[in-house]
Amino acid sequence: MLLETKEDTSVMAFIEDLFSDYTFVNIVSEFPDSTLDIPTVAVSIGKATIEQFELGNRDGRRVRQYHIDVFTSSMVQRNEFAYLVLDALKNGIIVYNYNEGFPPDVTPSVKEHLQVVSRHFIPVKIQPELVEKLYYRATVSFVATNDRT
Hints:
By secondary structure, the chain is of the alpha+beta class. 20% of the residues lie in helices and 39% in strands. The protein has a single domain, classed as STM4215-like, CATH 3.30.2000.30. The model has no long low-confidence stretch (mean pLDDT 88).
């Protein structure tokens, strides 16, 4: 499994773990394209960039962007979920070695760490005339770099 795939899988697992106490929240990968069940939290992979970091190092520094879309039935719940994600990102995200297997059968070892360098909370205005079901939405975007590569 490529390092980028391990990072993506770890971000998804991070969000699933974060919302484990909220059993009524649907956690999905990518933006929902079917019927939207409220509340839903969608994890989407954004832009991946490789920046030149130092002379002689052709690998560069990998910079990743992710978007966490929150869909709820109230503004209060939207803000609660979005702020929960925003706050939890302050310590970064552990990247596990999923080549060893997946929980609950295996407890994979820690492989890397995504250091979050910026976090953004963006409320999204929903136009009632454009959607059948009124809901509230926000996007939490973050940029991270793997601080162990």
